[in-house]
Structure formats: structure tokens, C-alpha cells
């Protein structure tokens, strides 16, 4: 999991993250977000196509969600992209689907970002 793109437009900073979820990568994401001024709109767009492959234990998904909630607490909009049916069902069963915004794919997310930036 790594930040593949960081775009900033006026007071809006958007981080696109892709890859396998690993704790070290989440620490880098936290650090990158912390460096953005708090008066800016901050968004984290995560490619979730690998979330179903979280390793080690079942608590890994809990750790992942816990980190997302910590990020969200810092006034960061979290958008989950490209969730497969299993991951989406898990989020729905755990009633986590209403906590985060979703986009069907990273391309759609990029289009949403572009159209919002143009409108701003």
C-alpha cells in the first residue's frame, strides 16, 4: 500500500492510495496527511481491491478499519474505491458501509475529483 498520487488544488488535498494494506504504509499515509494544513480539505481515496487479502489474522480487517476511523477523526474524508463483492458485504454486515464514502473504481474517483475541482 502506497500513496500513488497526491493532488492539491486551492485548499483541497487528495491522496490516492493503492496496493496491499500494510501497517508501515498506513503510518506513511498518516504522516503525509499530518503534513497538510488543517484548514485545507483533506481526502484519502483508497483502492480496496486488495482488502480481502489482509494477512495474518481476522483482526487485520479490524486494524484496517480502526486506522481508517483514526484518519477520519482528523477531519479527513475517506473514500473506498473498487471494493469487491465480499469486502462490500463484510462492510455492510459490520455496518461500516455508512461510515465511508464509496466509488466503484479508482477511475470514477478520479473523475469525481476532476469534476469537483473544475466546479470549485
Automatic annotation (TrEMBL):
Top-rank lineage group of the source organism: Bacteria
Residues of the STAS domain: 20-105
InterPro entries: STAS_dom, STAS_dom_sf
Name of the protein in question: STAS domain-containing protein
Amino acid at each position: 500500500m502506497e500513496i500513488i498520487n497526491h493532488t492539491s488544488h486551492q485548499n483541497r488535498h487528495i491522496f490516492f492510495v493503492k496496493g496491499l494494506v500494510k501497517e508501515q504504509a498506513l503510518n506513511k499515509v498518516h504522516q503525509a496527511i499530518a503534513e497538510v494544513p488543517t484548514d485545507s480539505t483533506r481526502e484519502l481515496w483508497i483502492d480496496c481491491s486488495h482488502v480481502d487479502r489482509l494477512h495474518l489474522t481476522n483482526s487485520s480487517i479490524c486494524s484496517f478499519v480502526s486506522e481508517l476511523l483514526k484518519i477520519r477523526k482528523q477531519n479527513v474524508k475517506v473514500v473506498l474505491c473498487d471494493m469487491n463483492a465480499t469486502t462490500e458485504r463484510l462492510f455492510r454486515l459490520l455496518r461500516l458501509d455508512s461510515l465511508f464514502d464509496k466509488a466503484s473504481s479508482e477511475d470514477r474517483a478520479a473523475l469525481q475529483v476532476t469534476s469537483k475541482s473544475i466546479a470549485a
